[in-house]
Design a protein that fits this description.
By secondary structure, this protein is mainly α. The chain is built from 30 helices and no strands.
């Protein structure tokens, strides 16, 4: 195994997907999952086996599974290894595993070492170690996160103050500053140290002076006010230029205070006067659905349901489904015009079939899919197989998926086999990491050519929908 393969698995749910690992573990196949981790270099198998072994107190076996992954130097595996070693009482080994060697160690490696020091009860050493690196905003965020509950807030504030003041000076002069997040972090530490009034004052002054970076400080300020029930100031924040950022905290705070009607009046009033009320209308729909007023929410959004650029329809459909109103959600999709579906509603058919499955109309949905010739063959098979499985026809679904060699069909088949407690067949159905990568690159070309959007997915954030389907590279 190597870091590149491990990163690819984390980014694209490669190897044995977590849902398959979970099914195998639910049936008690810890030994098999641990063996697959070693033999396949499979990250999700390693994670699953380690979690199960740690829960059983089998730290030596857990470390044996994770050690080869941690020794690659890949930081998620190193962190997982640290947790095993510390739970096992091997403090010095945990520190040795994470201690940076040489001046070329990455900032990420330095952060992991500092976090390990904190876990070992050596918070002061961790803070001193990170101090030279705080001009990186991710390291600054790491400092704040790792010292939560460590009784070191005064020291953290001493380190943040000059960074926040520097950011303020630049932003006051109309210049952006890479440490803009220091403003929010300073307020966060003030609040958690029991100085909520000072946090509100400091962050409020920054908002008033329009000192904020790409991630709007107004949102942090509104959330801070909401946590402390400062409804008057929150209402003031939800006016003018800052309405979009403040409205969600405002509605939640007013509702929690038993003043849902006031929240609704503020929302509707702003919609009536806003030049571009689209975002606020979305919040109003969300608010009404949370209040159980589904038809009113639909009435608010209906005029824009077929807007070619900012349709709220999909969000409304998902919110209705979350509230168990699958039939009403399906009705809204059935009301879409053919022109909208053809031009902008390419998501409508798949959502319709999913909703039909949730309503027990699996066979009807399958008939519709079979009459839709433009679907990709593998996509068609996976969708039909999912509906068959929901209809209780697991063996039939497995046979259908076996006819398609692609990665998605293979992993769907493995999941069904795992559910039926056929573990060896489940693992055998899944191609190796190397084969999965080769298939993806044959389809899309080398990863370096995928563009910025694909690279943005490289921080361990997997592109997965609730059903576990991995999206293709974004273009």
């Amino acid at each position: 195994m190597n870091i590149d393969d491990l990163e690819w698995q984390a980014d694209w749910l490669g190897g044995v997907p977590p849902r398959v690992v979970d099914s195998l573990l639910e049936h008690g196949h810890v030994d098999l999952v641990a063996r697959a981790a070693a033999e396949r270099g499979d990250w999700f198998c390693a994670q699953g086996a380690v979690d199960a072994l740690r829960a059983a107190g089998e730290f030596e076996r857990a470390w044996a599974v994770m050690k080869p992954f941690a020794e690659t130097g890949w930081l998620p595996a190193v962190s997982a290894g640290v947790d095993i070693l510390l739970a096992w009482g091997r403090v010095e080994e945990a520190l040795a595993l994470t201690r940076p060697v040489g001046e070329e160690s990455s900032l990420g490696a330095c952060e992991v070492y500092a976090e390990t020091l904190v876990k070992c009860g050596r918070a002061d050493e961790a803070i001193t170690f990170l101090e030279p690196y705080l001009r990186d905003r991710w390291t600054m965020r790491c400092l704040v996160t790792m010292t939560q509950g460590q009784g070191r807030d005064a020291r953290v504030l001493e380190l943040l103050a000059p960074l926040a003041d520097e950011a303020r000076q630049h932003q006051t002069q109309g210049r952006s500053h890479p440490l803009w997040e220091a403003l929010d972090l300073q307020a966060e530490v003030l609040e958690r140290s029991g100085q909520a009034e000072e946090a509100i004052r400091v962050l409020g002054d920054d908002v008033a002076a329009r000192r904020y970076g790409p991630q709007n400080t107004v949102q942090s300020y509104a959330q801070l006010l909401a946590r402390h029930g400062r409804l008057k100031e929150l209402q003031q924040a939800a006016t003018g230029d800052h309405a979009r950022e403040a409205f969600r905290p405002l509605t939640k705070a007013f509702t929690a205070a038993g003043r849902a009607q006031d929240a609704e009046e503020i929302l509707r009033g702003n919609i009536a006067t806003a030049k571009d009320p689209g975002g606020q209308e979305g919040l109003l729909m969300e608010f009404l659905i949370e209040q159980g007023r589904f038809e009113e929410a639909i009435a608010v959004g209906r005029p824009a349901f077929e807007d070619p650029w900012e349709s709220p329809l999909q969000g409304v459909v998902l919110l209705l489904a979350e509230n168990g109103l699958h039939d009403r959600a399906l009705q809204l999709l059935d009301e879409c015009s053919a022109e909208y579906v053809a031009e902008r509603g390419d998501w409508v058919p798949s959502n319709r079939w999913w909703l039909m499955g949730e309503l027990g109309r699996c066979r009807e949905a399958i008939t519709e899919i079979e009459a839709t010739p433009e679907l990709d063959a593998e996509e068609r098979a996976c969708t039909i197989a999912g509906l068959m499985a929901k209809d209780g026809r697991l063996d039939e679904a497995i046979r259908l998926l076996a006819q398609h060699p692609g990665r998605n069909a293979a992993t769907d088949r493995a999941h069904l086999l795992a559910r039926l407690d056929r573990p060896l067949e489940a693992l055998a159905a899944i191609p190796s990491v190397a084969a999965q990568r080769e298939e993806q690159e044959q389809r899309w070309g080398p990863r370096k050519d995928w563009g910025d959007d694909a690279e943005d997915n490289g921080g361990g954030t997997s592109k997965q929908d609730p059903e576990g389907y991995v999206e293709d590279p974004p273009f």
